Please model this.
Amino acid sequence: MLTNKSTSFWLLLLPALISLTLVLFIPLLVGSYYSLTDWNGNTVGQFVGLQNYVKAFQDQGFIDSLVFTAKFSVVCIVLINGIALLLATLVTQKLGRWTTVFRTVFFMPNLIGGIILGFIWQFIFNKAFESLGDLTGLGFFKGWLSTPETGFWGLVMLFVWQMSGYMMLIYVSFLNNIPEEILEAADMDGASPMQTFIKIKLPMLMPAFTVTLFLTLSNAFKIYDQNLALTQGGPYNSTQMTAMNIYNEAFAMRKMGFAQSKAIIFLVIIVIISIVQISITRKKEISA
Model:
């Protein structure tokens, strides 16, 4: 059996360590240095210290994008996990051959690229909704993506539709691993399906919540392509998420050093939130 004290263990791990060093650790260290300069993408100019970080916290557009991204992430985490758990409960029922069909249909949106998804939903909001508005005379279908509020919910609908099926599969795998003996014992004791779900299934799904909450949180925070394709941050940057704000600062304004400082701040925020989330859900696993 391999242990971390054996040479074979480290030899087998070496390719992964080299890859991580090349694509993660070295770029992170170089980027951290560039964030302390006035780098413009071509030449590294003057060393400015923490000036870029101070400017980032004074940049109202960056702060607004952080607030928008945080609000978007909270709403999406709740909706995605709620819908995914509901779908997982549905497809783990005895539905015969329809079980596989439903799982495939619910998972399919996750196979579509973010840019394509954005353009699909842009067509739905701008064309299909407008046609429904003309047909029914309801103002609800008019002007989607033209206001900050509808733009926000448009992004939420797109992301929830994309990610729910993926999270559903994780819940399905954990639901299928619940011992049948426990469920049969609950049924013999007269527990209703709702009582079985709340008292038995939910506590045993805590490891699944750790995984799904982390995945939805990290993916919601770093969303860019859907934001670009659906709203492009409009109107007037009111739906601009943090990843887009950083990208525009780097490649539109050519302020690479300043954008890098924003990226480092964003990374630290995501890491802190992820650590807090994982520590809380892990404690719930133990208590459950």
Notes: The CA atoms of residues 33 and 52 lie 12 Å apart. The two ends are 32 Å apart (CA to CA).
